[in-house]
Amino acid sequence: MSKVFFTSDLHFSHANIIKFCPAFRPQYVDEMDEYLISQWNSVVSPEDTVYNLGDVSFAHDIGRVEAVLRRLNGTHHLIYGNHDALIRQHAPRLLNTPKHDGLPLLASAQDYLLLKLPDSKQKMVLFHYPIHEWDGCHKGWYHLHGHIHDRIAPVRGRVLNVGWDLHGRLLEASDIERFLSALPKVSHFGDDDDKAWLPSSPEQAAADIRAILKKHNLQ
Fold this sequence. Notes:
This is Phosphoesterase. 31% of the residues lie in helices and 15% in strands. The protein is α/β, with parallel strands linked by helices. It is built from 8 helices and 9 strands. The chain has a 5-stranded mixed β-sheet with strand order 4-3-2-1-9. It has a 4-stranded mixed β-sheet with strand order 5-6-7-8, with helices on one face.
C-alpha cells in the first residue's frame, strides 16, 4: 500500500545549514546531500507520495538541483519556500522531465495547497511559513509548515512544523495524526484579552493597537 510523507527545508548544497542546525546533518555538504537522499529513499518507494514544504536546495545551478530531484523516489509535490526561486524559474522544465522511476522531477509546484487525504478526517493547509490563522482552523483542520527549521511556532491550534531539522526524518500521514489529532481547535473569534476592548475612536484604537503590538514583541 502506498504511503504519504511530509518534510521541509532539506537545504541541499547549503554549507551554513550544517552550522545552524547540526543535529541531523553530516559535517560536509556533499556527505549531507548523499545522506539526505539515502534517508529519503530508505522510506519512500516509487509508489509513495511526498509533500515537500519548501527550501529544497541552495545550489545556484539548476543542473545540480535536477541531479538531486532525479534521485528522489516517489511522486514529489513542492510547496515553494523562500529559497526556491531557481526552481520556480525552471518549474515548467522540472514538471515535464522524468526521473529514474518514470515520474516527473516534480509532480506539482505551488505556493499553497489545501489537501484532503483519503484516510484522514481533517483537511490540511500546506504553506511554507507558519501562519496564525488558516482556512478551517476553527473546524480542526491541520496546518503544516516549514521555514523555522528546528523550532516550534508559538501558534495555537493543530499546527505542525514538518521540517527535517526538527524531526530528523520524513513524517508519515500517521505521524501527523499522532501529533495533531488530540490538540484543541482554534476559536474562530479568539478569546484573547487583547480583543476585549471597545475603542472610543479610530485614534484610540490605533493607540491601543500600538500598545498591544509592543507588548507582544517585548515578551
